[in-house]
Amino acid sequence: MSPTNISRAENVLEQSLAAAQRSTDRTNVAAIADHLGVMTWRRYETVSDRRPVTQEPKISNLLTHASEFWNWYGLYTSPYKPPLGVDTKRAAAAYFRTARLADSSNALAVRHELMVPIEDSNWDGLLSVAREQIALHPGQPWSWLAAGLAQHRLGRATLAAESFDRGLALLETRERAMLMDVGRVLSIRESARHAEMPDSTRDRFDALFWSVGDPSLLIPGNVFRSEHLARVVHADLRWSNEEEGVRGANSDRGDALTRFGPPDIRASFKFGVETGPN
After folding, report:
1. How many helices (H) and strands (E) does the chain have?
2. Among 17, 47, 195, 271, which is least packed by CB within 10 angstroms?
3. Cα(217)–Cα(251) distance, rounded to whole angstroms?
4. CB 249, CB 178: distance < 8 Å
């Protein structure tokens, strides 16, 4: 869809949102506000973490020599001040909050508002939204899982483990298996073997995997397991794309985050020498 058509669609949705708000149709308010939020968020994603490039690199060197990347990154890129997309992200967040407050039972609106503090690594903010939702709908699994992510990142091991366990218990079997899939962190060959195991064998393997990986039996909860869950929940909430039927936990970025953990830096580049925002 062209930028002009997107703008027209947003104008129509804005008018529809205003009409729904006047009629106090909270279900429609939530659906329309959430849709506007997603459209706005996708615009933000095209420029998020963008750094202008003053000299294009030789891509083959960057892919084969880490030192080449860091040298180029330090010499020929720098952050925009202020960062691009700040106002767009703020607008998307406002739409998501409008949607969730209008209909807190709208699962997509809830997930989308949870996505915003995850993007900002704002763990206190994430915990605040999650707790609001838990108070309203204690049966919503992703609110508990988001609380577990926030508490884990805030160093509250016992609370994180309890929240993760509550969330997992509320999930359907298939979705719970997706999050707890040990194959996500095994090698390709080991993952294939894991998938072929009989259920009983796989269950024993998984239990041993999490037990052996626990760095300290003196710390409440299994920190190894909680770190895995924090990564997978982060990935699924941050990078799911419902329009394209993509689960964030199964995306390329989700796979990288689950295997290797949070990145040291986040940056995007638009090659073709840049002299300013565009």
Report:
1. 14, 0
2. 271
3. 33
4. yes
pLDDT band for 264, please (50, 70, 90 cuts). confident
Of 31, 40, 50, the closest CA to residue 277 belongs to 50
CA distance 228 to 136: 27
pTM comes to: 0.89
Q: Which two tokens stand for residue 256?
A: 């990288």
- Checking if the pLDDT of 196 tops 90, the result is no
| Residues facing residue 241 across a β-bridge | 246
What is the Cα–Cα distance from 84 to 90, expressed in whole angstroms?
12
Compute the distance between CA of residue 122 and CA of residue 4 in angstroms, rounded to an integer. Answer: 34
- At position 218, the amino acid (one-letter code) is L
Helix (H) or strand (E) run with residue 111 in it: helix 107-119
Residue recorded with tokens 């939530």: 30
3-state secondary structure of 10: helix
